[in-house]
């Protein structure tokens, strides 16, 4: 079971038709179809519901949640917690909905909803945990889409109203003190979405040191290249230079001798 891989990354409750036509809108709390065999695959006791606690938090803390959205269907995210990990119900989850601590530009602030408006990407959110303590509880992610045409509460019709597709996923966490019998791990599980990760820290001193060392290395490389090619250039110049004459003195023209004129008088 430890090496079991979970390739079911959609978790869309069996699809729109299965959710709304066959099951009347009912859903498995962790993304499985409502009409699946109990225990469902992603719930406690199911194939992938192994009860491994992946994070421990303090009561009422603000946590970072990241969700990778591979296909945007508009709509919104919500997050909630239930301490009854062996028998999680949607009613229990709805009593402990996490609070959204960040507003979104251009959108009316919602204290529970996050609207993914930037297409497919990794969304990072800040949510506040409820003031409750549990040694083993279930964190639920819900993504209620908004790209289907339907009837609005005021009687009009438009995209985003009426029944919509829905996606869900769960992670096992602890809030407060862990119980001794609860399984603990330091590695992430195969839960597809919504597992918070620790934030990275930034050190300006380290960045300066790296920049200086990089500059010195680049300068040294350029100097060696210049020295190398300068020496080769000098050698090539000497090779193509025409040979010089080895004579010490330039040749001198022979001395001019005045020709004598002899006359014979008869």
UniProtKB/TrEMBL annotation:
Pfam families: LPMO_10. The lineage of its organism: Eukaryota, Metazoa, Ecdysozoa, Arthropoda, Hexapoda. The chain crosses the membrane at residues 205-227. It comes from Aquatica leii. Residues 14-173 form the Chitin-binding type-4 domain. Residues 256-266 have a biased composition (Basic residues). This is Chitin-binding type-4 domain-containing protein. Residues 245-266 are annotated as: Disordered. The keyword Lipoprotein does not apply. It comes from the Eukaryota. Keywords: Membrane, Transmembrane, Transmembrane helix. InterPro entries: Cellulose/chitin-bd_N (IPR004302).
